[in-house]
Design goal:
With 355 residues, the protein is of the alpha/beta class. The protein is 44% helix and 17% strand.
Length: 355
């Protein structure tokens, strides 16, 4: 029996891509034939994927096809037309309103993806979400009883060595505030700059803001952030661009606090990674952020730069408070580490298989 996956593209070091790879390996460990089919092949990923047109050779009513929501794509129509039993995994789709001022094409694709998601409610055999936030969206669109299974993490991979050059460079005694996520309008890096401006000016001049993530998808937004950095006369703002895993591990290990002001997260992988590296988290309570943190970290519901900067300073200077936050995050991390992924996935596959 085949349990295959369909997604627009398998990006290197992308949350959905890593999830698809981990899921494929888990399915193979259960004895299923499992392949990943994509609309667009990325250089360096050829060994991991096949063009979606080749799925026809593996398609049949006895098999299961898993579709990952991401962005508007012709794959949605192909998925609907297949005779396979269908499972949709909803990772969320960023609303088009975030992209419209910066990139109309991406805004259109996001709008298209929302329409396609609504059209797939009837044809699917079952649906799955990686957060309660995403599950609520599916229910609102008419998907019956979506299962909730969080993203699968490779803990051993997170524990591997980092890049010693980065570790040495940034462990220089300064307080490093970190955000990990592509430079994109919904991530609200401009709010991070405003908060950092207040923190550096009024609380800690020996501080640095490190923004890790791909930064070439929205060039006009990136330029606006650069201008803002200049206008605010900020020093020590680091845009790293996309980095390899060993560099990312060093940025986490060299940082003092994880700061997230994103206004739309379907899950928030860097939040969980911050729990793993025992970084205190301060995050804006939007989308799935609250459910992913599960009562850990510190949530804010208003973006007041001076108040948030003051909060960061208190966490950084009050060891007892910081340790209390870390302990709450340790408990939340244990939830993800002990989650019965294999058992829940096996039950899900059997539910579709014998439906």
């Amino acid at each position: 029996m085949g349990v295959h996956q369909l997604l627009p593209v398998l990006e290197e070091e992308d949350a959905i891509g890593n999830y698809a790879l981990n899921l494929r390996d888990a399915l193979r460990a259960e004895g299923f034939d499992s392949k990943i089919f994509v609309y667009e092949t990325r250089a360096g990923r050829e060994a991991e994927t096949l063009p979606f047109q080749e799925h026809r050779r593996f398609s049949g009513p006895e098999n299961i096809l898993i579709f990952h929501t991401a962005i508007g794509s012709p794959l949605a129509d192909y998925f609907i037309s297949c005779p396979d039993k269908k499972l949709l995994i909803h990772h969320n789709i960023t609303p088009a309103r975030f992209f419209a001022p910066w990139d109309r094409e991406v805004a259109y694709l996001a709008h298209q993806a929302r329409q396609q998601l609504a059209e797939m409610a009837d044809p699917v055999s079952a649906s799955l979400a990686d957060s309660p936030f995403n599950a609520r969206e599916l229910i609102e669109l008419g998907y019956p009883d979506p299962e909730i299974i969080p993203l699968i993490f490779d803990w051993d991979r997170l524990n591997r060595p980092g890049n010693p050059e980065i570790t040495e460079r940034y462990r220089d005694g300064k307080t490093n505030l970190l955000f990990v996520g592509r430079v994109a309008p919904n991530k609200k890096q401009e709010d991070l700059l405003r908060i950092f401006s207040s923190y550096q000016k009024y609380f800690n001049s020996a501080s640095r803001l490190i923004l890790v993530g791909e930064d070439n998808r929205f060039p006009s937004y990136r330029r606006a952030l650069e201008k803002m950095t200049h206008d605010l006369k900020l020093e020590e703002v680091i845009f790293t661009g996309k980095v390899p895993p060993e560099d990312l591990r060093s940025y986490y290990r060299s940082s003092s606090l994880f700061l997230c002001m994103s206004e739309h997260e379907g899950f928030g992988v860097p939040l969980v990674e911050s729990l793993f590296y025992r970084l205190p988290v301060v995050a804006y309570d939007a989308g799935a952020v609250g459910s992913t943190l599960g009562g850990s970290g510190v949530l804010v519901n208003k973006k007041d730069p001076i108040r948030i900067a003051s909060l960061i300073d208190r966490i950084m200077t009050d060891n007892k408070l910081c340790e209390t936050i870390i302990k709450s995050q340790d408990r939340r991390l244990e939830y993800f580490k002990s989650f019965p992924y294999r058992g829940r996935w096996k039950a899900m596959i059997n539910r579709i298989r014998y439906k």
